[in-house]
Every structure is written in structure tokens, then in C-alpha cells.
Amino acid sequence: xxxxxxxxxxxxxxxxxxxxxxxxxxxxxxxxxxxxxxxxxxxxxxxxxxxxxxxxxxxxxxxxxxxxxxxxxxxxxxxxxxxxxxxxxxxxxxxxxxxxxxxxxxxxxxxxxxxxxxxxxxxxxxxxxxxxxxxxxxxxxxxxxxxxxxxxxxxxxxxxxxxxxxxxxxxxxxxxxxxxxxxxxxxxxxxxxxxxxxxxxxxxxxxxxxxxxxxxxxxxxx
Length: 222
Hints:
The protein is mostly helical. It is about 60% helix and about 0% strand. Helix 4 runs antiparallel to helix 6, helix 7 crosses helix 11 and helix 9 crosses helix 10.
């Protein structure tokens, strides 16, 4: 009888120990999953092209994205994933980005990556483009500043990204794609359609060079 009572007394302790071990295991698994899927870890696949600090790589046609508005990054990743951007065969980097966006499992993963990117220190262009700054200043404020901000800092409320810090070739390529209908044609991409119309109002390549020269002066140490 005494042995039976001892066994009955220890049984609840054994069950409690098993429950504690089970919950500890589940907590550890959840913690490991959270670490494996945080924004910094997920960004590793982006860093191969965009750089570990999001500084961009012109050789790979990958723009600087560090410090860009998180909502803008999220929207572009969803556009790539849903083929609203990068669907035209003329946009080879865009097609590559479609595959990268598809590798992010869901909107939660996209949000984590976007938040990580937004928290990275903003970039500046190492070698600013040359051009007529007087003309570029006038043209920028007349055509771009109302949406992209007086210092090309972007405007989240207007869904306009930061332009300061982007390399010249990337901006020229995107401008040409908007102008030529390679980008900004999807009915659900309202900001893209607005840019497509605006791109047609810049008269010459020299004017665009001047605008970019102005943009490259923004956000630089004084």
C-alpha cells in the first residue's frame, strides 16, 4: 500500500515535468523559427545583389535600397511577386527580381525585409553625376519635387520613393522604362502610371542628366 501511494504521489510530478519539457521544447522551436525568419536573416538573399548594407551594386543593375520607405519596398516586392512589375521581357533585372520576390514566403516575410531595409543607414552617391545644376534644380522642382520631396527624400503619403542615393544609370533605366511603357502600365499600379505620364514630359537626355545631377547633391554631407 505504501509503495502504491508513493507511485501515485510521484505521478503528478512526472506529468508536470513532461509538460514543462514539452513547453520548453516548443518555445525553443518557435524562438529558432523567429530568428531564422527575422528581417536581417531574410535580407541575406537580397544582399547578394543589393549589398550587405543595401548600398546597391551598379554592375548588377541593383539599386541602393538602404533607408528607403518600408511601405514603398513592400509595394514593389508585391508588384514583382504578382507580375505587376518586371513582366516585360525588356526588363531583365525586373524579371530577376520576380524570382527573388517569389522566394519570400508571404506578406509577413516581405514586411520583415522591408522594415530591415528601411532601418539601414541611407546611402549617398560616391561620385555625383555632372550636369547643369541650375537647369537641374529648376526642372526637378518643376516636375519631380511635388511628389519626391524638395530634397529628393521621398514622400510616403504620395507613394513616392526616395531618389537621393540612387545611381545615375539605375535612374536613367527606370525613367526610360516608364517613358517607353516597360514599367507603370499595370492598372493596379497607380503611382507607376503617374510616373509613366510624367516621364514623357522631360524633353531631352541632357535635361534628365541635369535633374540627376541635382538629385545627387541631396542628402550629402555639407
